[in-house]
Amino acid sequence: APFVLQVASFCSLATDGSLVATNGSQEVEVALSRFPLVCGDLRGPRAGPCQQGGPLGTLGDILARALAQDSRWGQRLRQRQRLCQELPKRVWPPLRAPPRLRIVPERSGPALALTCYAWGFSPADITMRWLHNGDIIGDIAEDSVGDTVGGIVGDTVGDTSRQSRVLPVGDGTFRAQATIQVPPGTSGDTFDCVALHPSLEEPLRVTWGEALS
């Protein structure tokens, strides 16, 4: 029976469709009639035998050395790496969904914390701002998953207890939250959580006040 030389590669995707960039997540394999000989990583031209020792290990080592001297091998790896980078967009077409907002108060003695939850939005780009009696008291902006660009800056209503993180939910949408600490003496004041998102023509706003709760 004839022998067949096969080259296969795969990319690992997270639940939100993003490319997992960890060791072993973008592998390439050269097999001879389904027997793996050479294994490597798409992000580098280096590859080695899949097995150590034995006839297959020896053959894999010879083939790996030959591929390392062939410029076409590196070109093929780079081509397959580009396909990996384009794969998430093909598997999960970009969604465009507006966020939903909700403010949840939490008391601990005289201290009051207000957390604004945003969820169900896509893409991940979102800016969340707090307003105190209509005046901006700080903002937090995120332009990628887990990458904080700014932070809420407490002014007349105290310091920030927690900064927002944009996290994938698993269905192609994202969630985030922003928390401020409200000191005593603001019982008659109102606080607005405002979200700016590419899917919105106008900012989305929810209001909280002790008289409204």
UniProtKB/TrEMBL annotation:
Sequence ranges assigned to domain Ig-like in this UniProt record: 99-207
Pfam family, one: C1-set
Keywords: Glycoprotein
PROSITE patterns given in the database record: IG_LIKE (PS50835)
Keyword Hydrolase appears in the UniProt entry: no
Example of a GO cellular component annotation carried by this entry: MHC class II protein complex
GO biological process, one term: immune response
Cited PANTHER family: MHC CLASS I-RELATED, SHKT DOMAIN-CONTAINING PROTEIN
Name of the protein this chain belongs to: DMB protein
Primary gene name: Hladmb
